TrEMBL record:
This is DUF1569 domain-containing protein. It comes from Paenibacillus radicis (ex Gao et al. 2016). Pfam families: DUF1569. It comes from the Bacteria.
């Protein structure tokens, strides 16, 4: 499984982010490209232990069983629901969001598994550092595919 803690996978993601431009259009979903970049940055804030969204009641009930969505080699399905606190609907600056996501991705990778949050994922619950690394990669891969890169 690809993991953001592996430098070659991080480099692949960064190269794909660099292929985006302010006019990139989504193949599905409601976010524009700048909003998607901000959304991905906000998700990394959760994995880094910067933000701590509460667990949803549905996540408490079924989140542990649903971890298999993340912990496998299959891509994430289109139009999955998202964590409400990181749903971006306001206008964002593309260049600013692109650079911020690249910086956060690089820092997350360099910090390594030791600096990953121990706070539970808002839906899936407790994740190991390895699972967070896979989750970050898959989340970025999902949204980059959404925009054709």
């Amino acid at each position: 499984m690809k993991n953001i803690f592996d430098r070659k996978h991080t480099n692949e993601i960064l190269a794909r982010i660099n292929k985006l431009d302010a006019h990139s259009e989504p193949h599905w979903g409601k976010m524009n490209v700048a909003q998607m970049l901000a959304h991905c940055s906000a998700f990394q804030d959760i994995a880094s232990g910067v933000t701590f969204p509460k667990r949803s009641w549905l996540g408490v009930v079924v989140g542990g069983f649903a971890k298999s969505i993340v912990y496998n080699d299959k891509p994430l399905p289109r139009n999955m629901s998202t964590i409400p606190t990181i749903l971006i609907a306001d206008k964002r600056d593309f260049e600013k969001e692109k650079e911020l996501l690249k910086q956060k991705t690089d820092v997350f990778q360099r910090n390594g598994p030791e600096r990953c949050t121990t706070y539970p994922h808002p839906f899936f619950g407790k994740l190991t550092s390895e699972q967070w690394g896979i989750c970050i990669y898959k989340h970025l891969d999902h949204h980059l595919k959404q925009f054709g890169v």
